Amino acid sequence: MNTTSSVYAPGTLPAGSSARALPRAWSGGVVDSGGITGMVSSIDADPPRNSVFSRLLHPRQAHHIPVEFTGSGAEYFRLWIVNLLLTLLTLGIYYPWAKVRKLQYFYGHTEVAGQSLDFHGDPRKMLRGGFLVAVLWAVYSQAMEMSGLAALAAATIVAVLMPALLSASLQFRLANTSWRGLRFAFPGTARQAYQALAAPLLVGLLGLAVIGQYDDEAGRLLGFDLSPGAFGIAALTLFGLLLVAGPYVYWRLKKYQHDHYRLAQLQTELRLGPGAVYGVFLRTYALLMAPLLAAGALTFVAWQLLGGNRVSAATVGVVFVLVYFGSGLFFYTVVLPYFQSRMQNLLWTKTGNRYLRFRSELRLRPYLWLQLKNYLLVALTLGLYWPFAAVASQRMRLEAVTLVSRIELDDLYQALRPHAGDAAADMGDELMGFELGL
Amino acid sequence: MSSVCAIALDYYDGRSGRAQRVTARLTDHTLYLHGAGVARSVPVHEVRWPERSRRAKRVAHLPDGAALYGADPDAWDAWAQAGGRREPLVSRAQRSWAWALACLAGLLLLGAVLYQWGLPWIARGAVQLVPPHAEQSLGLAAYDSMRESWLAPSELPAEQQQRLRQAFQQAVQKAYPGGKAPAWQLHFHKSRIGPNALALPGGTMVVTDELVQMVGGDAEVIVGVLAHELGHVEHRHGLRALVQTTLLGVAASVAFGDFSGWLATAPVLLGQAGYSRDAEREADQASIRILQAAGISPLAMVRFFDKLAENGQRNESPLGISISSHPADSERVQAFRNAAAARR
């Protein structure tokens, strides 16, 4: 895959080249690029065969193609700061342009087999989607503050729309991503998204309804009348259900996503049952609970040592702030990176098909250190370090991934250009802020 | 005329993953491509040109889904420039540290202006739009939930409640002649939060039994405290805080949100604490005004702070006032003392 461009002036063309076949406008006598010295082309003479791949390599001879990320924190810092100022000055109108620039930066610096990805969403269309999201968000947050019933209604509407928006979002994002001039696609339908998410969403809404009944007005209208005891039991049951069913829902969601990534003739599949996902979740729960219990015990001991004396409001405030940011730091630098790295490895290593698959080997310890460093530096620099942090995280996550290909990537062929999505798709993309999970 | 007019690039037709080597030539209006099996021209404005970046390969998209890849960014840039492509201003700004630093300075300035004047101004405007009955129902809802969770019926004798209520009513009448006072309702409650008083949107005010007991039923002090709370009601601080927190949240999540929502709460907390301190100062001014109109010395509030201090409730947090929601007590006491001295 060694390709080098060469720049040349018309006067230095090698002899023997011919300009006869060129259109009139090529008055400079430019020749067929094949005759230029010092240039190696990645094409060979055969035309692409639009069928099953001509050669399928033995798994042991498969190409291992690393994913490379060439972005730099300093460069992204400048992009971020300029876009942030423009977004603020235009009261958010510029936001879609900023978002496209950001995505282009990250995709454009992600290289696979010598060529980078590219994002080409249209900011003008995204502005419309963003505007719809802003209106929706305003209505939603307004409803939240008005009454319990309105909040419940708003949550119901969002939950009902969510699967459709998810599939629209994925379609939009992938249809606007390309590599080697080939557009990605997401053939998953809204119907499949509903099938994957309907049951868990219903359970979630039931939970909201139970909590909503805590609000008098909503309870009255829904005809609930739970005693406080029954309410507590219901809430606990729901929480338990969330812990137990959460990993299954997550697996259904990931299965829906990873079963439908498509490039040219190839579509991926997630060859993974829910069992392994439960494993990662359980270990994450344990990681989450351990320090919480420790902090609780410590507080109890401290309370006993103080003899249960009344402490001033200021002290309580300071302790609250310390606990809030301490537990936040723990969550974001230990629990979340643990979950992210383990899940990325699990999901992407099991994603692929007969011809092409991924392998993800994100190592836990360096990733934890990186996140700790990122969060500390972001806090110390009052946020200015964040572009550097974003680039460093992305680099580590992407460079852990290898493509294992049993075909020549040159053989990829796309007969139909995928559907690029519509306004709902732009909106879905805005709402979901979808990332490939890398 | 520059000598760089043509360049060899990889052309992908949008159907095949196989590159075709082409020679690309660029004039002001048209991009010409030629290679084995490729001969086409595309108007320059229909091409989606790549943004400059040090290490990214250049990719240009043609309207029918075909793409041009250039592995050597420098060569591409030289070629594009020679072909009359001018880099957009935003793109140039992104590449220069001088521009970036100027933007950073502009951002800090804009942030400071927005924080100091913009947000409070917007919040005041937004609060104007909220009808009083909506504000009232908001306050009543909050009051209901507080009664359920941590307020108990008052154990103060009814005549003491009546006496305090009357004292405050008289003070308000004198301070707002012609019935211009904001609507208020006063409730006494026994609570789990110790001596405290608070105002909810719409004029619902709550005073705890513990506060009345702490000051030994001193009516002047209670009037001062209630006048402070009425100041919050008059300036609609509760509602303003709601709007300001929301706006701060939006601003913070735009700036830092994609990295972490949790970290973005820090600027919101700090910013809201700043607004809250301003609101406390404003309410203290209202308290001074009402006390003086009623012929009570602002020193009553100094007595209140003394009692608080005796009770171990001094607000001099070790982290300083930068994160506190109230100004330091010493500053507030001084304001009341100054008011009392100025009157004499």
How would you describe the overall organization of this protein?
The complex is a heterodimer of chains A (438) and B (344). By secondary structure, chain A is α+β, with helices and mostly antiparallel strands. Chain A contains 12 helices and 12 strands. Chain A has helices at 73-89, 95-108, 123-146, 148-175, 190-212, 216-222, 228-258, 274-305, 313-349, 364-380, 386-399, 423-432, and strands spanning 7-8, 63-69, 110-112, 115-119, 177-179, 182-185, 262-263, 266-267, 269-270, 351-352, 356-360, 401-405. In chain A, strand 3 and strand 4 (115-119) form a beta hairpin. In chain A, helix 1 crosses helix 11 and helix 5 (190-212) packs antiparallel against helix 7 (228-258). The longest helix of chain A has 37 residues, at 313-349. With 344 residues, chain B is α+β, with helices and mostly antiparallel strands. Chain B has helices spanning 73-82, 89-95, 97-129, 132-149, 158-175, 209-214, 219-234, 237-256, 265-293, 299-310, 329-343; strands at residues 6-12, 20-26, 30-35, 38-43, 58-61, 67-70, 151-153, 185-191, 197-199, 204-208. In chain B, helix 3 (97-129) packs antiparallel against helix 8 (237-256), helix 5 (158-175) crosses helix 7 (219-234) and helix 8 packs antiparallel against helix 9 (265-293). The longest helix of chain B is centred in the first third of the chain and has 33 residues, at 97-129. The model of chain B is unreliable at 316-322 (pLDDT under 50). Chains A and B meet through strand 1, helix 1, helix 2, strand 4 and helix 9 of A and strand 1, strand 2, strand 3, strand 6 and helix 1 of B.
